[in-house]
Amino acid sequence: MPLDAQIPLHSGFAPKTEPEQVLDGIDLTGRVAVVTGGYSGIGLETTRALAGAGATVVVPVRTPAKAEENLAGVDGNVTAARMDLADLDSVRSFAAELAAQHDTIDLLINNAGVMATPEQRVGPGWEYQFGICHLGHFALSTELLPLLERSDAARVVALSSIAHKRNGILWGDIHFESTDYDKWQAYAQAKSANALFAVAMNERLAASGGRAFAVHPGGIFTPLQRDLPLEEQVALGWLNADGSPSPLAEAGFKSTTQGCTTTLWAATSPMLDDLGGVYCEDCDIAAPATPETPYSGVAPHAVDGDEAARLWDVSEAMLAAA
After folding, report:
1. Would you call 187 a catalytic residue per the annotation?
2. Homologous superfamily (CATH) for 3-219+256-321
3. Which helix (H) or strand (E) holds 80?
4. Which pTM does this prediction carry?
5. pLDDT by residue (tens digit) across 287-317?
6. Which position among 39, 187, 279, 295 bears the catalytic label?
């Protein structure tokens, strides 16, 4: 998707819009949604909002006890099934179970993720953040693609981040096998991968009327920050020394409910019926980033069609070799 498609629609929604505003008039009765990470943080609020609008929501869970507790207060048709994005066998088993229960999947929300973690490996030695945020979701999405194609207007939403602007895919050493590990480079690569995935997935869904989008949810305090010590969050300007939100965070960060609204907008808005493959933020299509917009906008590398095609091929090869 070329950068010139990144034209804001002036949707009428503000950055801190609440879910009920975005879903006003949206009826998802009869639609089936899958929300990864849908039992914690903004994922839980995404599940709650979709179920409240009538969708049947399936939540893949790595820790069933925690999921059961968190989902107990969600009204609507919500079920959980075991899956771990770090375990490709469990991803395939989850997808097969879904296929046995549902003819179609209408909404796939690739919400789960990790951020700036210490160096770890998953699968056959994959870098942890790339493995969880991108490859696990890539495996799930490709397994579910036939079900998505059978929907009359499927939508796939991949959660990216403004952190993508730091760097794109590190083609020379994606898994930090020969270069020193940098947790923020790794995170930026994973979030660029999420955006590029949406570009390539959108092309594959187009023939069946489906669309795919990347979303920056905004700054939100969630379990995503669990690997960041207080001192680092203070240095980033997010927290005061006593652990309370900084003035920057007070002004710009969203609540967990507000943090899911761009996802909901991308998943349901009729304004996007004829669009796809774009990067969204604040309940709208994001404009191209400029030096004057450090906290908003999308970098060219994250919506580059050639980069997206290359990443898709590389990801298929990695899964085939795993």
Report:
1. yes
2. NAD(P)-binding Rossmann-like Domain (3.40.50.720)
3. strand 78-82
4. 0.93
5. 999 998 888 999 999 999 999 999 999 999 9
6. 187
